[in-house]
Amino acid sequence: MPAAQTPPAYQPDILGAGYEQATLHFPDDYEGPVTSTLVRKKAPQSAGKAVLYIHGFIDYFFQTEMAEQFNQHGFDFYALDLRKYGRSILPHQKYYNVRNLAEYDAEITRALEIIGAEQHNAVLLCGHSTGGLTATLYAAHHPEHPLIKALWLNSPFYDFNMHPLKRAFALPHVSRLGKVFPNLQLPSELNPWYTASIHKALKGEWQFNLDWKKEAYPKVRLSFISAVFEAQKEIHRGVKIDVPVLVMHSHQTKNPRKWGTDAQSSDVILSVKHIRKYAKKIRGDVTIAEIKNGLHDLVLSEKAARSSVYRQLFSWLSSRGL
After folding, report:
1. How do residues 85-137 score in pLDDT, each as one tens digit?
2. Model pTM?
3. d(Cα 219, Cα 215) in Å, to the nearest integer?
4. Which domains, from first to last, does the chain contain?
5. Which of 40, 173, 216, 269 is deepest in the core (most CB within 10 A)?
6. CB 120 within 8 A of CB 147
7. How far apart are CA 235 and CA 251, in angstroms?
């Protein structure tokens, strides 16, 4: 039997009761051996439909409330910790190291094979931030995939949030440089309050591993910038997606330098104007939803905002027959 179709060996997951994980193995890359991790949580009564969630940059799957919301609506929930992230990091690897977002296609494809083999006939593919960019392109590149029936994008990374002149002139040069010197690093310019706004031990309400989702990430490899920039160019030209698409974003972007209300009620990572602009360039059945007071990861927002996320999401899924 081909390795891609070998049933996974699930083990109990770190998230506790009902959560299981399986390690998936892939051919060596430029750093050596590669694995990713598939996490699942089954609904009390399966209806043959499932979710496959793809996390963002400097991230991993820990959003249990989201998984349980899907379970309550009859979806079996699956999430990937991509290669070099979270559960999947190996001792010889650099965290989050990627040179082309298409590297992740292998684990998405494998996960979908497994989900199909586990008696599902419909999948909602979803992703957050860089995972949203990756999921958009995967759906666009696999228009006849037998399982993917809809796409949900949580603050997808469709453009860099930086000064227009820097984005227009410096970014293409940095991207080209990243193909030659992938391990060179530049200041990340990530807002320092994002992780603080969500972690329970800091100023938020969620518990997660600060080694896997770091409080600060001062420098970013040029390879990541190049990989994202090249993927975004395809989005900017406009892609066609043959399944219904729901794009969600916060109602505002802010870049607070001090702790305050803005850090608790805004996307402090991406420009919501960019998300809307490029979501409108997707050809197909596309719905764009704005979430009042949403954080960058909308499902980690304050209670009223994330309740709005789930209300609109499941209403939309129902309207599309899922």
Report:
1. 999 999 999 999 999 999 999 999 999 999 999 999 999 999 999 999 999 99
2. 0.96
3. 13
4. 3-159+238-319 (3.40.50.1820)
5. 40
6. yes
7. 22
Phi and psi, residue 38, nearest 5°: -100, 120
Give how far the C-alpha of residue 214 lies from the chain's centroid of Cα atoms, to the nearest Å: 16
Nearest to 138 by CA among 101, 175, 174: 101
Beta bridge partners of 39: 21, 79
Per-residue pLDDT reduced to its tens digit, 18-54: 999 999 999 999 999 999 999 999 999 878 999 999 9
